[in-house]
Amino acid sequence: MQPYYYYRVSNWGHILNLLHKSLYAEEMVCAMSSELFHIPKTKNLEGNREMHNHLVPASYHRVTAVGSSQRLVNGEQQQSIVETLVACIRNAENQDKNVSEGLITMEENASPEFKTFIKVIIKWQEQAESYLNQAKESLRAMGVSVPAGSEQQNGDDNFY
């Protein structure tokens, strides 16, 4: 990792922008997939409830990453903020894998009239993941160490 002063003066605004875009796409995934619970033909769609078990923590970690990057944009400089940001990006990525699997299950089990709708949700999820990955790669370019692999940061689901 580069010394903290190196990336302290870098443009955190770019990271914040990418994370905002990821969060916006996540908002669409949440809104659209939750709507399916309120449509009689899809209220018990296989995969949706299981997918939401991962969508909720993925959303939490995106929100926390956005808040952390906003604090950095605002001039705060604690290393712990950067560490929180990195951990939340990694945790969101880990949850995203299961969200994507759940969406595929939903598409496979949906009646034909809802398959296109679910494909749109899948596209939003792909956008959420893409922007999150771009933020991670931008952090690496700034000299921030972002661990590889799929291990959850902090080793638990306690949302920190």
Provide a count of the helices: 5
**Through-space gap between termini:** 22 Å
Oligomer: single chain
Helical proportion, percent range: over 70%
Structural class: mainly alpha
- Strand-residue proportion: under 5%
Mean pLDDT: 91
Shape: elongated
Report the order of strands and helices: HHHHH
The major sheet is characterized as: none
What's the total number of strands? 0
Cα-atom Rg, whole angstroms?
17 Å
Low-pLDDT windows of residues:
155-160
What does it look like?
This protein has 160 residues and is an all-alpha fold. It has five helices and no strands. It has helices at 4-8, 12-35, 48-73, 79-109, 112-141. The longest helix is centred in the middle third of the chain and has 31 residues, at 79-109. The chain starts with a helix and ends in a 19-residue tail after the last helix. Residues 155-160 have low confidence and may be disordered.
How would you concisely characterize the structure shown here?
This protein has helices at 4-8, 12-35, 48-73, 79-109, 112-141. With 160 residues, the chain is mainly α.
